[in-house]
Write a structure and sequence with these properties.
This protein has about 220 residues and is α/β, with parallel strands linked by helices. Helix content is about 50%, strand content about 10%. It contains 9 helices and 5 strands. A 5-stranded parallel sheet has the order 2-3-1-4-5, sandwiched between helices. Helix 3 packs parallel to helix 5. The longest helix is centred in the last third of the chain and has 17 residues. The chain binds cytidine-5'-monophosphate (C5P). Cytidine-5'-monophosphate (C5P) binds next to helix 2, helix 4 and helix 8.
Length: about 220
């Protein structure tokens, strides 16, 4: 029996950092499902087409190239916005659902060839749609201001000349699209542990998560 951890929450709440640490701690394969939506969004943008255009987005999702998952362009703010547009299209979500479920059912081996103990997937609908039977569900959130400040700091550290008001606005737009879409909107599963990271360090979030997980295992 392999362990599945479902980790959901809005942008810049600290999901990725926590997921990587939990994957290392419990020896789990890690899938950042946001990267799939980002890759689809960027593939459509590169054709000069609006990512909200359904037929182009569905075609890109159905022929998604794994090499795009490592492309730096998917990490840009434009990539995030494009991701949330393609993510609102039900047929795009359907095309990516099988991919995510296959990963959870048969996690790839580690680079040293060792079998993994299971998988951790992070995203917006892992606990509600992709892996509703996961024994462990975490919902990582934080106030809009805390998340925008973190993203702003990250961009500044990368040397990207960011404007705080713009970062905040982008995040508000993306949250609204993710929460209001008709299919698989961002919401905590009723059986998820909700952690508000607004005033927590990454270490405190990790400690709270492993205390909870170890009680269930
Ligand atoms: O997590 P990340 O910010 O990289 O996700 C980018 C976008 O992809 C999100 O804003 C959301 O619209 C979409 N997404 C989704 N479902 C997931 C993961 C990401 O709709 N499971």
């Amino acid at each position: 029996m392999s362990l599945i951890i479902a980790l959901d929450g809005p942008a810049a709440a600290g999901k990725g950092t926590l997921a990587r640490r939990l994957a290392g701690h419990y020896r789990l394969a890690y899938l950042d499902t946001g990267a799939l939506y980002r890759a689809v969004g960027v593939a459509v943008m590169r054709q000069g087409i609006d990512p909200a255009q359904e037929s182009a987005a569905v075609a890109a999702a159905e022929s998604l190239s794994p090499s795009l998952l490592n492309d730096p362009e998917i990490r840009t703010e434009a990539g995030g916005q494009a991701a949330s547009k393609v993510a609102a299209i039900p047929a795009v979500r359907a095309a990516l659902l099988d991919w995510q479920r296959r990963f959870a059912a048969q996690p790839p081996a580690a680079t040293d060839g060792q079998a993994m103990a299971g998988a951790i997937l992070d995203g917006r609908d892992i606990g509600t749609v992709v892996c509703p039977d996961a024994p462990i569900k975490l919902f990582i959130t934080a106030s809009m201001e805390a998340r925008a400040q973190r993203r702003f700091k990250e961009l500044q550290e990368k040397g990207a000349g960011a404007i705080y008001a713009r970062v905040l606005q982008d995040m508000q737009e993306r949250d609204a699209r993710d929460q209001e879409r008709a299919v698989a909107p961002l919401t905590a599963a009723p059986d998820a542990l909700v952690i508000d990271t607004s005033a927590m360090t990454a270490d405190e979030v990790f400690d709270q998560a492993i205390t909870y997980i170890d009680r269930i295992l």
